[in-house]
Backbone:
C-alpha cells in the first residue's frame, strides 16, 4: 500500500504483514511511516526469537521478522553505496 502518513497511521493497527524497505541512511523528509520498531521482537543472528511475546521492559511484542534480505545499492544522485534491507514483519 502506498499513501500518506495518516493512511499508514490509521491502517497499521489492522495490518497482519508489513513488507518494508529500510534504507540505512538518513534522508531529509517531511512525512514518515508511523513508529513500529518498538514492538518488534529481538532475534539473534540465526533469526531465532530471543524472547517469547514480551520484551524486557514488559511491553508486548507485536511484530516478528519473517524474512530479511540485506544488500547494498547505489544512490543515483551521488553514486555512493547505500545499505538497504527488505524485511517482512508478521503480526502474531
Residues:
Amino acid at each position: 500500500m502506498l499513501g500518506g502518513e495518516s493512511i499508514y497511521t490509521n491502517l497499521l493497527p489492522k495490518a497482519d504483514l508489513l513488507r518494508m524497505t529500510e534504507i540505512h541512511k538518513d534522508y531529509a523528509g517531511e512525512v514518515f511511516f508511523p513508529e513500529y520498531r518498538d514492538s518488534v521482537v529481538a532475534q539473534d543472528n540465526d533469526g531465532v526469537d530471543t524472547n517469547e511475546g514480551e520484551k524486557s521492559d514488559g511491553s508486548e511484542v507485536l511484530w516478528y521478522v519473517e524474512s530479511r534480505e540485506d544488500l547494498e545499492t547505489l544512490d543515483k544522485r551521488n553514486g555512493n553505496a547505500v545499505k538497504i534491507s527488505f524485511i517482512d514483519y508478521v503480526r502474531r
